UniProtKB/TrEMBL annotation:
<dbReference type="InterPro" id="IPR002114">
    <property type="entry name" value="PTS_HPr_Ser_P_site"/>
</dbReference>
<dbReference type="InterPro" id="IPR036637">
    <property type="entry name" value="Phosphohistidine_dom_sf"/>
</dbReference>
<comment type="function">
    <text>The phosphoenolpyruvate-dependent sugar phosphotransferase system (sugar PTS), a major carbohydrate active transport system, catalyzes the phosphorylation of incoming sugar substrates concomitantly with their translocation across the cell membrane. The enzyme II FruAB PTS system is involved in fructose transport.</text>
</comment>
<dbReference type="GO" id="GO:0046872">
    <property type="term" value="F:metal ion binding"/>
</dbReference>
<dbReference type="InterPro" id="IPR016152">
    <property type="entry name" value="PTrfase/Anion_transptr"/>
</dbReference>
<dbReference type="GO" id="GO:0009401">
    <property type="term" value="P:phosphoenolpyruvate-dependent sugar phosphotransferase system"/>
</dbReference>
<keyword id="KW-0597">Phosphoprotein</keyword>
<feature type="coiled-coil region">
    <location>
        <begin position="301"/>
        <end position="328"/>
    </location>
</feature>
<keyword id="KW-0460">Magnesium</keyword>
<comment type="similarity">
    <text>Belongs to the PEP-utilizing enzyme family.</text>
</comment>
<keyword id="KW-0175">Coiled coil</keyword>
<dbReference type="GO" id="GO:0005737">
    <property type="term" value="C:cytoplasm"/>
</dbReference>
<dbReference type="InterPro" id="IPR018274">
    <property type="entry name" value="PEP_util_AS"/>
</dbReference>
<keyword id="KW-0670">Pyruvate</keyword>
<keyword id="KW-0762">Sugar transport</keyword>
<keyword id="KW-0418">Kinase</keyword>
<keyword id="KW-0813">Transport</keyword>
Length: 826
């Protein structure tokens, strides 16, 4: 039997993140001679394809089966984290049990772990003890605990009547991954489910109960159920078990298939910061903090009493803002995520800070100067501390402090300093205008603390072909300028102070990536035909005439989205009919016979045009935008339609209406369009509509017979389905277009279009996302409209896919519960 050595147990650890905890327990395995250092990266990679959280504060990180050659000998190490580390949202871990298994010797320790899982009090004691030997003895199975385990039943439950017998064929038995799959299936039925192994009976809806069965390969199980849908539950569970219940080796093999992205995955030795991939690619260079807003305050003030009142008012206002944020985030994301705002409020009530600021005010300083001096001084002290947790609080204090400072500011200067030498730009977040002004020669890569993959920043980064990661967390804001880093836009990582080996791998990956890009460019004019003959058209999103020609050169098969707003912005009056016609005609000429979809004016919400004198709206995204604005300003709408119909005589043009929410809106838009066409005596053109709001997706079967095509605007559809502004500083990272709710809307839309014999395109962030390409293809989307730099890569990816495999993966995605589960399919 494998024994856990107390030397392989580290008590009192304090990792700040899950990744850091995995690295630390991996170091223990390395020190004990169980693994090569490279296996740590495999342990981190596994978190993308499996949930290693067991329950009761215990997690069991381990590597991917294909990396077992990196295991020198089977072993286990334990990292105790008394304060806890967040493993998954809302799940805190206190015992991190790292496993390196060449064989099944480690299963004895896992069996002891499941005993601990069933005893919350014992798990809590092991999480707090300072005796490493006690943890080692308990998990190795002391005589007392082994005897107790032997005499204890798996669960206090009874076997039910109807059922089936089955033999477990998984190489490692009913371990965490297949047991989790079983539990998730069982929970989808109302029936009560029981599983018997020998004289032990487990609750089929309890992971802990199932694991305590200790069912190894070859174990014979009896599965029973009772309830209204018992027969269906038994049939489903039997089929799942016979298929292997997401067998670990098969799942890892599937994950290794280049179905999503053929880019090289790098295993880094240095510290990494996990983020969300927003734009693919790699960058190596020094960090440069992007400081956007400079808050200006007066240094001195004459009336101390007035300044003291000003400080008190600002602090109270900031507290109310934090209370509102706490309530909002608590409702949307739970107490774990919202708790940070309570901590920020605590800073604002710190008596030492308040006393220090008030003393400076009484000495003649302004409230703003005094407050800034006090919180910056204390944040600097925190940031310099060796304790990682305390150091991380520096960014929290600065956040809370700036919230008050903005309320005390005389002016806020907002002129960012753009880089003039090659750097990796790090920022809290970037506005679209910030990103658009960047020079790709100097902005090697972008890393933001907040934001999400569907934000305008991400979209513009992809259009500029700049590698980018978002939602990296506030810790990146404390990185010093000049710190060498690798930004991995493929893996969603920022690597801090990489080792020579890391840098060498990254440079080789850049060479490989460039070779791949060259190959993709050479094949860019070939159609995107899947391995089994299905074809998907890949077209471009464009915003000006020059991009029309660039789209053709990049291999685009037309234009799937012309954003006509560019004609209306940054000017003092609306463009004339002739101006618009000349622009559209120039595009059709550049496309040389390839089709172009011209979206009618989509202004409102986040796009404002001063000369249109649109009234301020409380909820602009729910107000007069898109087609609604066109109805309110029929003069603009008719002028644009006339220009489009005139341009249609010069090349294949399609018209597309934005933001259609009701059947009445579509009817009205078509009536006006037909009136304009008749007045010109123009030939009919194909008419389509965007699917951007839930109502249009839900009623796609009603809309489909009335149009020639649908185009799914995945970015807006995501924010309306999830009710999350994709520019919101806290919520943007959750506004993921691969959320199952969004995918189900897309699926419903495609099925309705297919039934009516109409085709469906998709534009937006996920159309160019490697996993998005697979899922949209599998859902039956006929056309993908992507940024120009992505065209060749998307076409190359599609040529390596089969319709059968993409459909299978899409169906698995539709059955997921969260966006994280969907992305884990990659």
């Amino acid at each position: 039997m494998l024994a856990l050595d107390a030397k392989a147990v580290r008590v009192g650890s304090n990792p700040h993140t899950k990744a850091e905890a995995i690295r630390q327990v991996g170091e223990l395995l390395v020190e004990a001679g169980h693994i090569d250092p490279g296996y740590v990266a495999s342990m981190l990679a596994r978190e993308k394809i499996a949930n290693t959280f067991l329950g009761n504060g215990i997690a069991i990180p381990h590597g991917i089966p294909k990396d077992r050659e990196l295991i020198r000998k089977t072993g286990v190490a334990v990292l105790q984290v008394p304060l806890g580390v967040e493993w998954n949202p809302g799940e805190m871990v206190h015992l991190v049990v790292g496993i390196a298994a060449k064989s099944d010797e480690h299963l004895e320790i896992l069996a002891n772990l499941t005993d601990v899982l069933g005893e919350p009090e014992e798990a809590a004691q092991l999480a707090k003890t300072t005796d490493a030997g006690r943890i080692a003895a308990r998990l190795s199975g002391s005589a007392a605990s082994a005897a107790a385990a032997a005499s204890a039943p798996a669960a206090v439950v009874e076997e039910l009547g109807d059922g089936f017998d089955v033999t477990i064929d998984n190489p490692h038995g009913l371990h965490a991954r297949p047991a989790t799959a079983f539990v998730n299936l069982a929970k989808s039925f109302q029936a009560t489910v029981r599983v018997r192994h020998g004289d032990k009976v487990a609750d089929g809806k309890s992971l802990i109960s199932l694991l305590k069965l200790g069912a190894e390969k070859g174990a014979k199980l009896r599965v029973t159920a009772d309830g209204a849908d018992a027969a269906k539950a038994l049939a489903t569970l039997k089929a799942a078990i016979e298929k292997g219940l997401e067998d670990e080796a098969q799942a890892a093999a599937d994950a290794a298939l280049p179905i999503v992205d053929a880019r090289q995955t790098i295993r880094y030795e240095a510290r990494t910061v996990a983020a969300i991939s927003a734009s693919p690619g790699l960058a190596i260079g020094p960090i440069r903090q992007f400081v956007r807003a400079k808050i200006v305050v007066e240094a001195t003030a004459r009336d101390a009493a007035a300044e003291l009142k000003k400080l008190d008012r600002a602090i109270e206002s900031a507290k109310r803002q934090l209370e509102e944020l706490f309530d909002e985030v608590w409702k949307k994301s739970g107490p774990a995520k919202a708790g940070i705002f309570k901590a920020h409020a605590e800073f604002l009530e710190d008596p030492e800070m308040l006393d220090a600021a008030r003393s400076l005010i009484r000495e003649g300083r302004s409230a703003g100067w005094a407050w800034q001096h006090v919180y910056e001084e204390r944040a600097g002290i925190l940031a310099s501390m060796k304790d990682a947790v305390l150091a991380a609080r520096a960014s929290d204090l600065r956040d809370a402090g700036r919230r008050v400072l903005k309320l005390l500011a005389e002016t806020i200067e907002d002129e960012p300093q753009l880089p003039d030498q090659p750097v990796i730009l790090v920022a809290d977040d970037l506005t679209p205008s910030d990103t658009a002004r960047l020079d790709p020669k100097f902005a090697l890569g972008l890393c933001t603390a907040g934001g999400g993959p569907t934000s305008h920043t991400s979209i513009i980064a992809r259009s500029l072909d700049i590698p980018a990661v978002v939602s990296a967390g506030d810790s990146v804001l404390n990185l010093a300028d000049g710190t060498l880093a690798i930004l991995d836009g493929n893996g969603g990582l920022l690597v801090i102070e990489p080792t020579e080996a890391d840098t060498a791998q990254a440079r080789q990956a850049l060479v490989d990536h460039q070779t791949q890009r060259d190959a993709e460019r050479k094949a860019c004019y070939k159609p995107a035909i899947m391995t089994d003959g299905a074809r998907i058209e890949v077209v471009a999103n464009i915003s000006d005439v020059a991009e029309a020609a660039a789209a053709v050169e990049a291999g685009g098969e037309g234009v799937g989205l012309l954003r006509t707003e560019f004609l209306f912005l940054q000017r003092d009056s609306a463009p004339t009919e002739d101006e618009q016609f000349e622009t559209y005609a120039a595009m059709t000429k550049a496309l040389n016979g390839l089709p172009i979809i011209i979206r009618t004016l989509d202004i409102g919400g986040d796009k404002e045009v001063p000369y249109l004198q649109m009234p301020a709206e409380m909820n602009p995204f729910l107000g007069e935008r898109g087609i609604r604005l066109c109805f309110a300003r029929k003069d603009l709408f008719r002028t644009q339609l006339r220009a489009i119909f005139r341009a249609a005589a010069t090349g294949p043009v399609r018209i597309m209406y934005p933001m259609i929410a009701t059947f009445e809106e579509l009817q009205k838009a078509k009536e006006i369009t037909e009136e304009v066409r008749n007045s010109l005596g123009a030939d009919p053109v194909e008419i389509g509509m965007m699917i951007e709001v839930p109502s249009s997706a839900v009623m796609a079967d009603v809309f489909a017979p009335e149009v020639d095509f649908f185009s799914i605007g995945t970015n807006d559809l995501t924010q309306y389905v999830l009710a999350m502004d994709r520019l919101h500083p806290q919520l943007a990272k959750q506004a993921d277009g691969l959320h199952p709710a969004v995918l189900r809307m897309i699926d419903q839309t495609v099925r309705a279009a297919d039934a009516a014999g109409k085709w469906v395109g998709a534009c937006g962030g996920i159309a160019g996302d490697p996993l998005g390409v697979v899922l949209l293809s599998g859902l039956g989307v006929h056309e993908l409209s992507v940024s120009i730099p992505s065209i060749a890569a998307v076409k190359a990816q599609i040529r390596g896919l089969s319709r059968e495999k993409t459909r299978a993966l899409a169906q698995r995605a539709l059955a997921c519960r969260t966006a994280a589960e969907v992305r884990a399919l990659a």
